[in-house]
Amino acid sequence: MQTMAQTTAALQAQVQAPAHKVVFGGVPMMERFRRMTPPFFKDESDPIIAESWLRETKKIFRAIRCAEEERVTLATYMLQVKVGFEGYMHVV
């Protein structure tokens, strides 16, 4: 049985870990996010499309119980920019 100190230490390690390493229910947060098939944001200038993307992404964050500090990393993963005739690429 875990002591309170061990539990606290484990929780602090999760909060401080990068989003792709945070584990919830045995599954890394990045994997949980990807399983929800979040939409890509493809360099759109239309505010309605941007608002729709943001609304859908926030809905996923709530469903997977994603902490605020992890959301930027996960949302950035879904950003894409247009690169000429070759199509889109991920923003790194």
Polypeptide structure, described:
This protein has 4 helices and 5 strands. The chain has 92 residues and is α+β, with helices and mostly antiparallel strands. The chain has one domain (22-90). The protein is globular, with a radius of gyration of 16 Å. The termini are far apart. The model has no long low-confidence stretch (mean pLDDT 77).
Keywords for this entry:
14% strand; alpha+beta; two-stranded antiparallel ribbon; 4 helices; three-stranded mixed beta sheet
Mean pLDDT: 77
Write down the oligomeric state: single chain
Computed Rg: 16 Å
Distance between the termini: 41 Å
The helix content, as a percent range, equals: 40-55%
Task: Determine the strand fraction and express it as a percent band.
Answer: 5-15%
Helix/strand class: alpha+beta
Tally of strands:
5
